[in-house]
Design brief:
Elements lengths: L9 H13 L7 H15 L4 H5 L1 H7 L12 H4 L1 H26 L10 E2 L3 E2 L15 H27 L4 H5 L1 H13 L5
Antiparallel strand pairs: 1-2
């Protein structure tokens, strides 16, 4: 199946967030969206994921009719904002890994609710339609953390797409930034 500019993968984003209500451990499917862009770039030498397969990009395009469709401000176009967002998400991923390790060692209680932007815990627990008995606290914690980072970045992307053009998130997306850097460093130097 070849990716194109029409919104054909938006449903993956919607299904992902619904699956969190089925069972939070299904949130670990987000790892595919964190690995596939780099695997595709390594194979093709291009940003194949970003240019045709990213479900979040297709999801954000759905809001183009209500978007203000303004150009991104100049301060958002520079490398500093991309680096800032990349740093924030790298710190978030480090926190996910460290806190998951701490839970696995019994040094910390697992989180049992979604947290927006690392710190803001939702005031309600997500219903779990099909709880899986015997799932470790470590796996539950990791799942809630992954779901939290995915919903936080989607909310940020949605805000940007409503205030500016729908693809604004793509310009500052940490996966896009890292893929750019990977491709830049993988190209042979010209003599």
């Amino acid at each position: 199946m070849k990716g194109n500019s029409t919104s054909q993968y938006f449903w993956i984003t919607a299904v992902y967030f619904l699956l969190g209500f089925v069972n939070i451990t299904l949130a670990l499917s987000a790892l595919a969206c964190m690995i596939l862009p780099f695997a595709m770039a390594a194979k093709t030498g291009k940003k194949t994921w970003c240019r045709g397969y990213c479900p979040r990009a297709d999801f954000l395009k759905l809001f183009s009719r209500i978007s203000k469709r303004k150009a991104m401000p100049l301060w958002m176009r520079g490398v500093n904002i991309r680096n800032g967002i990349l740093t924030y998400f790298c710190m978030n991923l480090m926190l996910i890994l460290f806190s998951t390790y701490m839970v696995s060692q019994g040094q910390m209680a697992p989180i049992e609710r979604v947290r927006l932007f690392i710190a803001f815990e939702l005031p309600f627990a997500m219903p779990q339609m099909f709880p899986i008995p015997g799932v470790s606290d470590t796996l539950l914690h990791f799942s809630y953390r992954m779901y939290s980072v995915m919903i936080s970045s989607t909310i940020l992307g949605l805000i940007l797409s409503l205030l500016y053009k729908p693809a604004t998130w793509c310009a500052v997306c940490p996966v896009s930034t890292m893929t750019d850097r990977m491709l830049k460093h993988s190209k042979p130097a010209k003599n």
